[in-house]
Design a protein that fits this description.
The complex is a heterodimer of chains A (293) and B (314).
Chain A (H helix, E strand, L loop, with lengths): L11 H27 L2 E3 L6 E3 L3 H7 L2 H34 L4 H9 L6 H12 L5 H8 L10 H29 L3 H9 L4 H12 L1 H17 L2 H7 L11 H11 L3 H25 L7
Helix pairs in contact in A: 1-13, 2-13, 3-7, 3-10, 5-7, 5-11, 7-10, 8-9, 10-13, 12-13
Chain B lengths: L2 H16 L4 H4 L11 H28 L4 H5 L11 H11 L8 H32 L5 H10 L9 H10 L6 H5 L6 H12 L3 H9 L4 H12 L1 H16 L3 H6 L8 H11 L7 H21 L1 H11 L2
Helix pairs in contact in B: 1-3, 3-16, 5-16, 6-10, 6-13, 13-16, 13-17, 15-16, 16-17
The chains are: A mainly alpha (293), B mainly alpha (314).
Chain lengths: 293, 314
Amino acid sequence: MEKRARFQSQWLPYALLAPQIAVTLVFFFLPAGQAVYQSVLIQDAFGGNVEFVWFDNFKELFNDPLYLASFKVTAVFSVLVASLGLVISLILAAFADRVIRGANVYKTLLIWPYAVAPAIAGAVWMFLFNPTLGIVAYWLKLSGVDWNYLLYDGQALLLVVIAAVWKQVSYNFLFFLAGLQSIPKSLIEAAAIDGAGPVKRFVTIVFPLLSPTTFFLLVVNIVYAFFDTFGIIDTATNGGPGQATEILVYKVYKDGFKGLDLGGSAAQSVILMIIVITLTVVQFRYVERKVQY
Amino acid sequence: MSSTSQKTAARLPLLALMYLLPRTWREGRREGMIEHRPVLTVVTHLMLILGVAIVAFPVYVTLVASTHTAEEVLQAPMPLLPGKHLVENYLSVMAHGAGEATAAVGRMMINSLVSALVIAIGKIAISLLSAFAIVYFRFPFRSFFFWMIFVTLMLPVEVRILPTYKVVSDLGMLDTYAGLTIPLIASATATFLFRQFFLTIPEELAEAARIDGAGPLRFFWDVVVPLSRPNIAALFVILFIYGWNQYLWPLLVTTQEEMYTTVIGIKRMISSGGDAAMDWNLVMATAVLAMLPPALVVILMQKWFVKGLIDTEK
């Protein structure tokens, strides 16, 4: 769609675009370019000796068991976050959709965690599950669970998954509820008259009609788990114990910022860029925007 | 006993519970439900209440912890009812911080507020301008610029941490408000959103403006911006939350305590001491202060918030 009525000016459109383009060039393209450039170099930490090494940094990464482990952690983490987040919020949304009176109260009470910063969510859940003073850790120990996420890998991962899901449920819930409310009531009524109970109606009618929303949310949740959970991990577990919760984004930060491995960190950045580009393309090409709001 | 009566027996506790609930809840039909299933209605409300309770629990504990003394919080189990030190704790963190992050949380909140406002307003302003240029002018490299803005979607800070840090440090922007905000104010999402909206503004308005002799800037300011108000409000809510909750970026560019944002302040407090040495009551008071402004924005501006969320994902 193009406008017919346009304004004429030799310089004005460039001036209007200038601030956005300037920020984009200086803070996006320049650093991204540097990351790509550095990913094919080996440089000592003082900026001396620079050597062009083609794809050695990448080869080294993929031969590095720690990096592969981080890939695995990221995969497990994002699958858990996305699946748990979607299932829980779908259940809540399906129930909320049944209610007319009071629905808005539930909605308000369920959506506010969106506003909590990931880093704060991490800190709060860490406080609950902290083995020495956390109240939930205390209850777990009372019921005989040997709870110490500072020692056990699985427990640490569970902790960050819980915090990440908690934060994302509100978002998924809103979209599922909107999706559910857009399903024509007449369809559901027809099925009810034919004798289908609520569960059967949900499985055979409602859920298939929700599939565009579900797919869209799946992509959004994976992107969220990959890139927006840095704060949760940094405040809840610092990537530990060992590398148990070190997702890819956390590893780039740690290797580059704490470890000062410029080439390796740049190569990791490039791999992450490829992942983001893939996810963005999937989101734009395959996510149907048929969802009615 | 027949199977039907067994079923009824199993349902008895639920049926009893029903009568504790308000009448309108019991009568499913009144709520527009398709058939009358009182048990399901009760289960529905119970599940939702359970969901709300679980979602609220961590924040409740945080609130409670922030009203006790450090010793009370260290007890196992810590108290689950509010204590008497609310005012004292909050005044203390606002003035002195906690742990090794001894900067006043009051100062951190000002930093958070300034960055959130600059990021939100900055993103909206530069995106309005670029969308206006792209929709209302025809000029060489138009689609090239549009593509350039689009690509930033694929380059979140998280994937270019180190080189972006280097650029900001070379420009002398570490520990400044400019460093905290300007690198974040490019926005593909906002530009798209405004572009989509501008395309729906009737052609006649621009024609009329031209015939009346109004230049493009006059038209932008007197027609386009006022018409965009609902979009601006919705976007503002989302971007304010985004700006307030920034973490990785301020973690990189702030080294001096007086430039910490509230969210960074918490991280510095937690990583400063052992579990026992820390004043957890004060850390949790800071957490509450960090959550409050964006949560208030969501709750008080719920309509704009929901519109913003849905708009930005289109």
